[in-house]
Amino acid sequence: MTYILIFISAVFINNVVLSQILGICPFLGVSKKIDTAIGMGISVTFVIAIATLVTFLLMQYILIPFNLQFMQTISFILVIAALVQMVEIILKKVSPSLYQSLGVFLPLITTNCAVLGVAILVTKHDIYKESLLQSMVYAISTAIGFALALIIFAGIREHLNIANIPKAFKGMPVALIIAGILAMIFMGFTGIVKIN
Amino acid sequence: MSKNLNILTNGIIKENPVLVLLLGMCPTLGTTSSAINGFGMGIATTFVLICSNLVISLLKNFIPDKVRIPAFIIIIASFVTVVEMIMQAYMPPLYESLGLFIPLIVVNCIVLGRAEAFASKNTPLSSTLDGIGMGAGFTLALTVLGAIREFFGTGKIFDFTVYPEDYGLTTFVLAPGAFIVLGFLIVIVNKLKTTKN
Prior knowledge:
The structure holds 2 protein chains of 2 kinds. Chain A is mostly helical. Chain A has one domain (about 25-185). Chain A is built from 9 helices and no strands. Chain A has helices at about 1-15, 25-30, 35-65, 70-95, 95-100, 105-110, 115-125, 130-160, 170-185. In chain A, helix 4 (about 70-95) packs across helix 7. The radius of gyration of chain A is 18 Å and the shape is globular. Chain B is an all-alpha fold. Helices cover about 70% and strands about 0% of the residues of chain B. Chain B contains 8 helices and 2 strands. A two-stranded antiparallel ribbon of chain B has the order 1-2. The interface of A and B includes residues 19 and 111 of A.
C-alpha cells in the first residue's frame, strides 16, 4: 500500500515538472513532437533510476560514514555525468537500435535538474533516506510523472502548430502559458491521498 | 573601455539570459514565489557565475579540450558548495525557502553556457564583466517575476503590504502562476523588440 501511495503522490500530486518545477529545460525544449517526447521520457526514467540507486549507496556507505556530506553536490553531479556517459556507451554496444532513438537525448540529461534534484531530495527526506526500496519506487514514479507531463505537453504543442496565435505569443510564451494551465489542472489532484 | 561597457550591459538587456535567451528556466520558475526569494537566488547565481567565469578564463590554457565540460562542472560545483555553506551559516531563512534550488545552481544552463561560450575564449577581465552583466540580468528578471507573483498572490511587494492578503490569488504563488507570469513577461519583451525594429 505504501508503494502505491508513493507512486500516486509522485506521479500526480507532486508531479516533478508541474508542481515541483524541476526539469523545465527538457520539458520546454524537447516537447515539440510526441515521438521525441516519448524517447526523452524513457531515457530520463532509465537515468533517474540508476542515478538514484548509485547516489543512495554513495551517500549511505561513503559520504555519511566519513562525514563528507558537504561533498554531496560535487560527488553527485560527477556520478550522474559519469553514469550518463556509461549508459550511452553500454547502449551503443548492446542495443544499437535503442541507441539510435535515444542517443541524442542522453548528453542532455546530465544537465536535467530533475535527475540531481531527485537524488538530493531522497537524501533529505525523512523516510526515503532510510529505505533503498522506497527511494527507488519514489525515483521511478517521479520519472514516470516527468514522462507523463512531457508527453501530454507534446501532444498539446503539436496542435498549437496549426492554431492561429498572435505574433508576440508564438513559440515559448504560449507554451509557458499552456504549461501553466496544465499545472493548474494537476493542482486538482491535491488531496487524493495524504502526502507525507 | 566602451567594449568592456558593452560586455557588461549586454547581459542585462539585449541578451537577458531569462527573457531573451530563455536559459535557466528551473530556478526562474521555481524560486520566484516572492521578490526576496527571486533576488536571493539571483545573487547566489551571480556569485557562482562571476567566480566560475574568472577561474575558467584563468585556467583555459591548462584544461585539455576533451575533458573541458567535466572540468567546468567541477569548478562550478565547488563554488556552488561555497555559496550553499555561506547561505546556511548566515542566511538560514533564505536557505530554507530556496532549499533544493541552491545545489541545483550546478545544472543551471546559464552558468555552464557562459563558461563554454564566453569564459573559455576570453580574457579574465572581460569574463568577469560578462559574469557580472549576465548575473545582473538574471537577478533583474527573477526579482521582477518574483515581485509580480508576490503582488498578485499575497498583495505584498518585498514583504510590504499593498492590499489585504485575503484578496490575493494563491495560484500565483504556486507553480501555475510561475509559468503564466513568465509567459506574459516574454510576450511583453517580444512586443517591445518588434516595435523597436
